[in-house]
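Reviewers of the previous submission asked for a worked example of the structure-prediction workflow described in the proposal, so we include one complete record here. The input consisted solely of the amino acid sequence. No template or homolog information was supplied to the procedure at any stage.
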Amino acid sequence: AKDTPLVKSQLISKDKTTQIVELSVKKTNSHTIATIKKELTSAIQTKGVKTYLTGSDVLDHDFSESTEKGVKKTEIIAVIFIFVVLLLVFRSPITPIISLLTVGVSGLISISLVTNLVKYFGFPFSNFSEVFIIIVLFGIGTDYNILLYNEFRSDLTNGLTKSEATRQALKVGGRTIIYSGASVLIGMTTLFFAKFSLYRSA
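From that input alone, the workflow returned the following structure tokens.
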């Protein structure tokens, strides 16, 4: 079948400089896509010829790898940016550290919760779900922290003790955070009704 003119026209370019070669590789438990890709890339190397390896599984693997690298880069940039902003606002290195720790813990809990929802309840998931979680949590979480810290600092300047200022900040700021969080939850939940799977995974 590959010798027919129709197939040849699809596999060989008109100027005869490029040719597509099809390979069928059987996947096994001992050979992951990464291993197969590495072995095939090494095997097809030909001196004086440019060779490329592609395919749905290879592209999926590359996409997952680039997404993971993007997530790590996003985390690093977010942490540095938030630390600098909080340091400039509160002029204390302790406040940014506490804020990042609380947001980091909430991030771990959220990712674990989402993973279980996907595993046991079939919730939609994509390679960008973790990115969504990190961006939303670092953005909104830091805003909520700043709100609480400002309320706490304001109560201290009004003569309240630290324990009283803490209770007042949680009472006033906490109520605002609950209302704001509820509106964000409703907004994000509406994405479930979108037909595009990437939006649903958010």
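The mean pLDDT is 84. We consider this example representative of the routine output the project will generate in years two and three.
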